[in-house]
Amino acid sequence: MKNLAGKVFKLIRNSKQVSLRQVAGNCISAGQLSRFERNESHLTVDAFLNSLQRMNVSLEEFQYLYNIYHQINDVRLSQELSEAYVSKNIVKLNKMLACSQKLMDEASDPLELQTYTLNCIVIKAIMTYCNSDTAVTEHEITYLMEYLFSVEEWGRYELWIFTNAAGVLSIETLDVFSSEMLKRTQLYYSNSNNRRKIHQMLLNVINLSISRERNDIAIRYITHLDKLNISDTDMYEKLLLKYNKAYYSYSNGNKEALNIMKQCAKFIDFIDCENLYLRLKDEIMTLES
C-alpha cells in the first residue's frame, strides 16, 4: 500500500512550520525522518510517537487526517455510505456494493478477503433498509456472527459492523450480541468515539426491542444506560434515551408519554437533525394511527 503515513506526517509538520531537524530532536536523524516522508523507509513505533509528541500532535489527530486520505478506498470510513442510506440512493449503494465485491474477488490473502466480505454484507444490510431487492442471506448473517464472536475485544470496525447490520438480525440475536458488545468493548470504552457508538447502538437496540414488543429486553438496556450516567456533553444520546424511555412507557399503556416523545422530536427538529426528526415523526404518527 502507498505510504500515506509519511505523506500525512509531512502535511502536519509543514502546517506546524517546524523543520525536520526540530522534529527529529535527539531521537532520530533528520535524514531518517525525511526518508520516511518520501516513502523510502519506515520509523519504529517509538520514533514515530516521539516525533508526533514533539509536534504536539496526538495519535488520534494523526489518525483522523490519515483516514481522510485513506477513506476513498475504505467503505468503513466513507461518508458516502451513510449519505446513500439517508437519501435512499439505491444506485449509489449498488455501485458501492459492486466495488466492494470486486475488492473481495481480488483479495490477496484471507484477512483481506474476510474484511471485504464483511463490508459487502454490511452494504447489503443497509440496502435492505432502503426497500431494495437485495437481501442478506442466512449464510452471510452466520458469517458475520461468527466473525463478531471470534473477536475478543471489539474496536471501531466491529462496532461499525454491528451497528449497521443490526436491522437484519432477529431480536433474540440482537440481544445476545448487545450483551456481547458490552463484554467485548471494555478495553476501548474510554475512547470517546467508541463510547458514543456503544451508547448509540444500545439506543437503537432499545428502540427496535420496543417496536418488536420485547419490552423485557428494552428495559434491561435502559437500566444499563441509566447506570452509565451519560455525560451532559453527549446531549444527542441523552435526548434519545429520554425519547426511548417515553416510548417504553407509552408501550406499557401510559398514553401521556406520547407528549414527551413529541417534545423530544420537536427539539431534534429545532437543532436541524432533519433525518432523525423525520424518522421519529414517522414513528410517532404510526403510534397515533
Concise overview:
Among the domains are: 4-71, 434 Repressor (Amino-terminal Domain) (Orthogonal Bundle), CATH 1.10.260.40; 78-136. The protein is 72% helix and 0% strand. The chain is built from 16 helices and no strands.
Descriptive notes:
By secondary structure, this protein is mostly helical. Among the domains are: 4-71, lambda repressor-like DNA-binding domains (434 Repressor (Amino-terminal Domain), Orthogonal Bundle); 78-136. 72% of the residues lie in helices and 0% in strands. The protein has helices at 4-16, 20-24, 30-37, 45-54, 59-70, 79-86, 90-105, 110-129, 138-150, 156-165, 171-183, 192-211, 215-228, 235-251, 257-270, 274-288. Helix 10 packs parallel to helix 12 (192-211), helix 12 (192-211) packs antiparallel against helix 13 and helix 14 (235-251) packs antiparallel against helix 15 (257-270).
CATH level 1 class label of the domain at 4-71:
Mainly Alpha
Number of strands: 0
CATH structural architecture of the domain at 4-71: Orthogonal Bundle
Separate helix tally: 16
As a percent range, the share of helical residues equals: over 70%
C-alpha end-to-end distance = 55 Å
Q: Structural class, from helix and strand content?
A: mainly alpha
